[in-house]
Amino acid sequence: MRLMTVAELNNYIKEKLEGDLFLNNIWLKGEISNFKFHYSGHMYFTLKDAQATIKCVMFRSRCSNLKFLPENGMGVVARGRVGVYERDGQYQLYIEEMQPDGIGTLYIAFQQLKEKLEKEGLFDQKLKKKLPRLPKRVAVVTSPTGAAVRDIITVLHRRCPHIEILLIPVAVQGENAPPEIARAIEMVNAYGQADVIIVGRGGGSLEELWAFNTEIVARSIFASSIPVVSAVGHETDFTIADFVADLRAPTPSAAAELVAPNYLELVQRLAELQERLVLGINFYLQKNRNRLEVCMKSRVMSRPMDLIQSLVQKLDYTVARLEQAMRGFHREKASRFQVACAGLNNLNPLATLERGYAVCRDKVTGSPKTTISQFRVGETVEIILRDGLVDCTVERTEEGNS
């Protein structure tokens, strides 16, 4: 049997509790008691119901997101994880977020759907479609009565009188609202004539806006090939439709402002561009007209033959220099040829014979005899002279110079 310390036991229990996936993210409903707002910014209190209590702590980083001030006796719905405070050996709920109990169920459903769709990528900014700069037709999916549709139509006509409005009347609250809104978005896409879709309604409570927090509406917006602007409630209201839509407008009027270009501003902008275009063309024409005038006044244009005659003279001078160079080249080559011929003539053996010398060679082999040892008494040799040859018989040989 292993003997454990108290610290080891508390740590073991902590690991068991914090390793449980279910206990890592639970929603809990209860009433606040023993509330204490610590000077550090942390909140400590107990959640209780008729049968039990549990210690709770909400750290300062999470408290900053609260939209209400908790107090004793208040019913709340909280989301958090169960853990163990080892020093005291007690388990407690570490709260991540908390809402008053009155909207707890809807808020939990909102958060759960938001987390689900976000994981699937329906909120990905990279998938958002850009709104057209100059839409011709705007589809409005909303209730046919009420201030929202009037505001949208008024702003669209004021900003751009030529824009066409395609009104798709739907219920915006109640059980029929979600499927009607989804079908309307699908119908606009099937029709294919709208450039942008505005989906929304005026302000209201969370329950009244709930149609825009449903999965069917969210998926229909995401599936739309036409850009969708969500305009639900007031500026402080956020719905699932806002996160899925290509653009969120704080109010229906603001949606119309974002969708429709200001007609007067466009006209003014076009006038400015037209003016700039005319000025640019006039400047370009004047610049080239000035260049043409300068060219026409130049010597080349006024007396073109001067340039031609100058070039002809330059050509004649170049030809003359070329001919002179060729003659000098020929003289040099001829002189070098004569010198080479003279050198070759000096080496010519016939030239030696012209000076009175003779060549003696063997009668049989024809090889020249240059030394006394090559001669034998009685043999016949040939003597080559300037103008012929003579056969001679050797009668005597004598060494030494004569």
TrEMBL record:
Task: Please list the residue ranges annotated as the OB-fold nucleic acid binding domain.
Answer: 4-99
In alphabetical order, the GO MF annotations are: exodeoxyribonuclease VII activity; nucleic acid binding
Per UniProt, the keywords (alphabetical) are:
Cytoplasm, Exonuclease, Hydrolase, Nuclease
Indicate where this protein resides in the cell: Cytoplasm
Query: What are the residue boundaries of the Exonuclease VII large subunit C-terminal domain, all occurrences included?
Result: 122-337
Query: At the top level of its lineage, which domain of life is listed?
Result: Bacteria
Q: Which Pfam families match?
A: Exonuc_VII_L, tRNA_anti_2
Q: One GO cellular component from the entry?
A: exodeoxyribonuclease VII complex
Any one biological process term the GO annotation gives: DNA catabolic process
CDD domains attached to this UniProt entry: ExoVII_LU_OBF (cd04489)
* Enzyme Commission code: 3.1.11.6
Q: What reaction(s) does this enzyme catalyze?
A: Exonucleolytic cleavage in either 5'- to 3'- or 3'- to 5'-direction to yield nucleoside 5'-phosphates
Is Hydrolase found in the keyword set? yes
Q: Which NCBIfam families match?
A: xseA
Protein task:
Bidirectionally degrades single-stranded DNA into large acid-insoluble oligonucleotides, which are then degraded further into small acid-soluble oligonucleotides.
Q: Subunit notes for this chain?
A: Heterooligomer composed of large and small subunits.
Q: Family membership, please give it.
A: Belongs to the XseA family.
What is the name of this protein?
Answer: Exodeoxyribonuclease 7 large subunit
